TrEMBL record:
The keyword Signal applies. Keywords: Signal. This is Uncharacterized protein. It comes from the Bacteria.
């Protein structure tokens, strides 16, 4: 398994006595027939806004204006013929850059995104992704501190998980979590690229 590791949280003086034991979920994952194969995280997987072949009177598409998005990709395998629903909870910690005129150092921020996938057919090339808009990335990422975790649940039971601080505790629980910044694939311009390679996202309840 490939895991991209962020800078150590100990550099921020963050410690915890809680142990995040993903091994405790191993039996659950085996029972369900699920395994995380690989996790890749920005900047290794940083894509630029896609360039669609479209045009409109009075509008120009400028390639040089395309910006870089944050992207985190989880590749996973499923063994049963069908799994009707899986939930992925993403946690991404970033430290905002220093701002001119402010003396205090910015505090790290944890972003959360929950994504429900439905009707997953058996196979070894399933992908889940989470994104952050280029402007949000510029606002919240100082280019240094980046940590992440992903938890996978089936019928309300946590069956798998990976973290850049594996075995270091549920560190994200020490922060106030911010919603609405991370995006699923359908909430980005990448929604129509290789669409059949990705599972169906369950619409949010209204």
């Amino acid at each position: 398994m490939k895991i991209v590791i962020g800078r150590s949280l100990t550099a921020l003086g963050i410690v915890t006595a809680l142990v995040l034991s993903f091994s405790s979920t191993a039996a659950e994952a085996q029972e369900v027939g699920f395994e995380i194969a690989e996790v890749e995280v920005f900047p290794d997987t940083a894509p630029k806004t896609p360039d669609y072949d479209v045009s409109s009177a009075g509008l120009n598409i400028r390639d040089e204006a395309r910006k870089t998005w944050f992207r985190m990709v989880v590749e996973y395998e499923t063994m049963p013929e069908w799994i009707d629903e899986l939930t992925f909870d993403y946690y991404v910690l970033m430290r905002p850059p220093e701002m001119e005129g402010r003396q205090e150092s910015p505090q790290p921020v944890v972003f959360h995104k929950k994504i429900d996938y439905v009707y997953i057919y058996q196979g070894d090339e399933h992908f889940s992704e989470v994104f952050m808009h280029p402007n949000s990335l510029r606002r919240f990422y100082d280019g240094d501190i980046l940590e992440w975790a992903v938890l996978v649940s089936y019928k309300g039971r946590e069956i798998a998980g990976e973290s850049s601080r594996q075995g270091q505790g549920r560190w994200w629980e020490q922060f106030s979590v911010r919603e609405g910044v991370l995006r699923n694939r359908l909430e980005t311009p990448f929604a129509f690229i290789n669409i059949e390679q990705y599972e169906e996202i369950k619409p949010a309840a209204r």
